[in-house]
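Researcher: Good morning. I'm working through a list of sequences from a screen, and I'd like to move beyond sequence-only analysis. For each chain I'm collecting a predicted structure so we can compare shapes side by side. This is the next one on the list. No need for commentary yet; just the structure.
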Amino acid sequence: MIKNIRTKQIVIIGAVVLLIAFLFTRDITGLEKPKEDTASAPATEQMAPVAAKEIDLEEVSRTGKNLINNSLANEIKNLENTYKGASEDKKLPLAKNLAQKWDDVEQPIPSALYLEIIANKDKNLTNWINAGARFMKAYDLTRDSVMQPALLQKAHQSYTNAFAIDSTSAAAKTGLGITIVNGMGMPMKGITMLMEVVAKDPTNLEANMSLGTFAIKSGQFDKAITRFNDIIAQKPTPDAYFYLATAYENLGRKKEAIAAYLNSKKLAANPTLSKFIDKRVEELSK
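Model: Good morning. Structure tokens for this chain:
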């Protein structure tokens, strides 16, 4: 998964997520890339927009119902049948109910699709931001390499629509910047948007977290350490400590890495993460 610093491998998490709400409930995956490759790669390197397939609501609904208990699955199935049979003027509240039901059972893909339906029916800033955020949550959580580009593109379009409604919205600008950094165009365009958000509001956690994780991915570990220490001074969270530990480890600063990992473990109190961190600490203590 994640190799020792002596192998000159960069230690990062495979998906940039809010670890408290999402990643800590799943297995942790890692992405390894030689330090010399990432360190030499310019941050301004153009990334081609992702090609995405269409997401079929019926298909993801069937998949989602297979992942939850029968009682909840039947409840959602009945709601979906009611939604399909309803007149257009009655569908909006039913779509809202379905979006919430899918979110309650931690199935963000169908939830996001219903939020997109809502936003298309009632085109306002909040609805598009909600859809974008749910698509990004689904993107962060999925391990389906075919589905990921489609979810990212959906998030990008949702935030683009939100930004068109209000270009001063920090949430719209942050979300749009994050989708660009993740592959919808040139990373530096997204970074510039995130920097503009932080310049206006230095306490914006979402923008700061994205800038910090991008610094790790691009091998700028000193910048990442500064960024995550600033975040922790404002609001200590397991994910901020985890990424801080990652940056320290890549610089060979084992003592600081261990301390940060242990703080992440303490705040998260999650068995899966604890097991992973225990292994990292054991390795770093040698």
